[in-house]
Amino acid sequence: MNDAAGRRARPPDGHGARTPDGGATRPPGGPAIRTPADRATRTPADRATRTPADRATRTPEDRATRTPDGRGVRSLGGLAVRTLGSYGVRFVLGALMSVVVNRSLGPEGRGAYAVLIAVATVALHLGQLSVEEAHVALWSRIRDAATVTANSVLFGAALGCVCAVGAAIVVVGLGPGVVPVPGLGLLAVALAWIPCAMTEKLLARLMVLRTRIEVNNRSGLLSVGVHCASLVLLAALGEVTLGWVVALWTVSAALPLVVLLPAARPALRHCDLAVARRTLRLGLRYHTGLVSMFLLLRADVLILGAMTTTAEVGLYAVAVTLMELGRVPPDVLANLAMPRQLEDDERAAALFTVRSTRIAALVAAGSVGLLCAAAPLLVPAVYGPAFTGAVGPLLALAPGLWSIGASRPVGAFLLRLDRPLWNSMTAVAALTVNVAVNLALIPSCGAVGAALASSVAYTVLAVLQVLWFLRVTRRPWSDLLPRCSDVRFLWATACRVPSWRAG
After folding, report:
1. Can you give the pTM of this predicted structure?
2. Bridge partners (DSSP) listed for residue 25
3. For residues 269 and 271, what is the distance between their CA atoms, to the nearest angstrom?
4. What is the pLDDT of residues 64-85, one digit of tens each?
5. DSSP code, position 405
6. β-bridge partners, 10
7. Alpha-carbon distance 128 to 115, whole Å?
8. Dist. CA 294–CA 126, nearest whole Å
9. Residue 257 has pLDDT above 80, yes or no
10. 497/468: higher pLDDT
């Protein structure tokens, strides 16, 4: 049998039944009836045999309502609403936990808790070797979910344990004069968080790539819900101690695995050491950029703390916490778009990224703008009059947060290009700008200066990524400007969600 015999033939007019090899049938004038097996066996040649008459049967409504995973706008709207609802519930419960912990531990205990969190978080980001980013970059080439799933569990457990042991050695070697941890026992409990958190991060990214974001929603709600309920119960019993708080924080990283592992179904027999070595090599090439991105989001706090008072740091921390809430809607959109960006051919992915970026720009403008408008009333009402000074830094952060939110789809597309050096260079450039502007503005402007420096650095990062994207795809700037059709798409999505939920 020649290779053409294994393909589904289509009559010249694009209608009628296909060959009897299990392919789809198309009644005259009717839509194709495809089975899962039919979709799985489609080849590029099959797609190429689509005739103009076949393409013409697609209506503008069909094109407008397609989503990144091939579902209609109702599915997209429902998933977006559920994901935003999940983030909202987690934010509210997180705020409640913050109040319980702060009131129960006091400033000294809260400081000790912060040191333990900082040690574990820094060790995680330095030691995970950008495996998550490497999996995203390799996804369009490997296309083997079983291998990536098994390797994710392997990397999470192995790298996580190595990071924990390495961090313990460094902290003990430096001594309490440099890293003032409250005790080696509590340090061990905090470092046990690392392998759990690393495995959770890798599996959660895999769920995004497999268009199963609702699994992440359930795992996040389980973790935060149990964590918050346990803290509230301990507070009611008067038993909130530093040891309990650290232990619950570590357990909260393991709880998502209760949902993620059954959903991912990893099997050790699917581990592929060749793919693992390839992932590590690529991850190491991305790692400089990842560490720079981590420092880009944290360096302002460190510099502000070294050059001003703890009160200024507190105001700035509140501003950052609130402004990150404005990043949630564009982040959700970016996660919904990522599978399509990585699985299509590069030209189709670029076209999809252009439209996703325009929509992300509109969504980010709405969320950040709404937060800025509400901040003068929201901040004093929630945190008290003493935190009114956080409004200025929050407003100064707004342009940068809009830039980084609008460019999220572009950043996802750039990962598929396998250019880790360029990714690292853009992150290092933005970090350099952030440090330089912080040093220049903080002495005279305090927290507002740190916010302006971060806003400038985030904008630099977004502009560099967009310039690189436009150069690679050879598209003009005007393609990224939001259009009326994008507004209509968002409006259609918002209008159809209620009917979807009611149906």
Report:
1. 0.67
2. 33
3. 6
4. 334 444 444 445 566 777 887 8
5. H
6. none
7. 20
8. 9
9. yes
10. 468
